[in-house]
Write a structure and sequence with these properties.
It is built from 4 helices and 11 strands, in the order E-E-E-H-E-E-E-H-E-E-H-E-E-E-H. The protein is of the alpha+beta class and 189 residues long. The protein starts with 15 loop residues before the first strand and ends with a helix.
Length: 189
């Protein structure tokens, strides 16, 4: 019987391209862990996150960043946050579980998403063509996060800086998502 070797690859093979001052890069060293709150366990989970990461859990639509290791918590909906951490290991859920114990339910989501970072002075202008939400800083400040659609594809959008956005979409449609973002970029140049 032949031997097979599987090699993990990011959805877009580590794509990165400059368009003038605009940079579009796939984040390949970022892990995502879904943290679900046990019924009635909001206070316990909040206390565990505060103890382990020195940051409060965010409200829905906001994100918070740990001062200890840079883990970012995304408030996606009541009872669920994503932990976004710098890691290329397949142990992301175990890393979070080791720190938080039984305060939550953890599922590694890293391989389910493609993550693009769009940064530069034209980032908002490029996204406005395909994103139905108001991305002006008065409406969507640094640290804001929401679920939306871009070109009919489910997307999570996170603003990490004045001119920097992190976009998450399903890995199964990574090429279509990349095409939508690049088409929008090319249409503003």
């Amino acid at each position: 019987m032949p031997e097979f070797t599987l090699i993990a690859r990011p959805p877009l093979d580590g794509y990165s391209q400059q368009f003038g001052d605009l940079d579009c890069t796939e984040l390949t060293d970022t892990a995502l862990v879904s943290i679900a709150t046990p019924l009635g366990g909001e206070d316990a989970l909040g206390a565990a996150v505060k103890q382990a990461f020195k940051v409060a859990l965010p409200a829905v639509g906001q994100s918070t960043v740990s001062g200890t290791d840079g883990t970012r918590f995304l408030g996606l909906q009541p009872g669920q946050v994503f932990a976004m951490l710098a890691s290329d290991s397949d142990r992301a859920a175990a890393i979070i579980a080791d720190k938080l114990g039984d305060a939550g339910y953890y599922t590694d989501q890293s391989d389910s998403w493609v993550i693009l970072q769009l940064s530069g002075l034209q980032a908002r202008k490029a996204l406005e063509r395909i994103c139905p939400i108001d991305l002006h800083t008065d409406a969507f400040a640094v640290g804001a996060v929401t679920r939306t659609v871009m070109e009919h594809l489910g997307t999570i959008i996170l603003r990490t800086g004045t001119d920097t956005f992190v976009l998450l979409s399903a890995r199964s449609s990574a090429k279509s998502f990349q095409h939508a973002v690049l088409t929008s970029i090319n249409n503003i140049l």
